[in-house]
Write a structure and sequence with these properties.
Blueprint (H helix, E strand, L loop, with lengths): L2 H12 L3 E7 L5 E6 L7 H17 L6 E4 L3 H17 L5 E9 L5 E5 L4 E10 L3 H11 L3 E11 L9 H9 L2 E7 H8 L9 H11 L2
Parallel strand pairs: 3-4, 3-6, 6-7, 7-8
Antiparallel strand pairs: 1-2, 4-5
Amino acid sequence: MNNLKKQFIEFTLNHEILRFGSFTLNSGRQSPYFFNTGLCNNGQLLNSLAGFYADSIIINSLDYDFIFGPAYKGITLATSISQTLYSKHNINKPYCHNRKEAKTHGEAGIFVGIKPNGKALIVDDVISSGKSIRESIDLLSENNSHPSSVLVAFDRMEVGEKNRASKELSDTHSVKVYSIITLEDIIDYIKTDDSLSSHLSEMEKYISQYKR
């Protein structure tokens, strides 16, 4: 596990972005963990979160013309990552996000920010089924853009339509999919921290059941 992954997991644990226990997901599934970047709701936490994304962009040498954040969580991510790339790495990249419904007056249209053009880096919080990212790829492809990369904080490593969602996105849409951490990374980290060892059995059971 590289330092970025380790530091990010510790950041999520310290601020309860990642929690262990028993949680009921929207799907009705019982999960032994819960991950929520929406808790990065002040300047300090958002700056830290965007910094991890920016560092991941640099480490992976991602090639893109603009950053796209799907509504709603992606809006804050796209804007904060764009700002952090400039302040931390002196890289000036434009961003945009979509509206849930197209505006018909004033700044009309579905997009806010730069108009999509060229290679898009899609940023979001997690990959679960991959549905929201597929919708973003389709939206951008229909609007003068080529979605070339996806970056999320966390890959849940769960099934999309038939296989692991992140792999399906890569294979079906010819995009490169990156994550700061995966579910396997979290389990590897638990194995090194005695204070979390009580959660290991349930996490391993969960990944054996849902990992693809």
